What does this fold into?
Amino acid sequence: MKKYRRAVSVLVLKETEVCTPTGCGTVDQILLVRKPRPSDAWQLPQGGIEEGETPEQAALRELREETGLDVPAVLHSSTETYCYDFPPDFIARNHPVNDGQTLCFTSVRVLKDAVVQVDHHEVDQFVWVLPEQLLLYIKRQEYLKVIERVLEEARKLKVKS
It folds into this structure.
């Protein structure tokens, strides 16, 4: 039987101003980080949930470790999950104790002037993208669809507040 590590992924949102020929307005950008590996390198910040941690605590810790962003609280915890097997080359190289991960998802908001500082170990690059640009970076369609559903949940929360 396969064994999956519990992990959490963080949808980080930041408002930005955009202008089109019809006018200007505010939209959300999404933070993506790049893992230094040959495939499926771009993803939301994520990491394992340690013993005794809640997914929300793990999300804030992983976000701080991978991006330097210190966010006081999670905006939303989604019911969405994404389970995947580690690629064979990752297994051969790292000999993990698990066969893959099961991700749960949280959302946070950061200020417009938030500064990202990647650790250059786990993460070597970052980019802020508009929602319609996600497909340029996220290649696994199932993962992309989950991110889009989590984004929709976060948007609904913003409308209510």
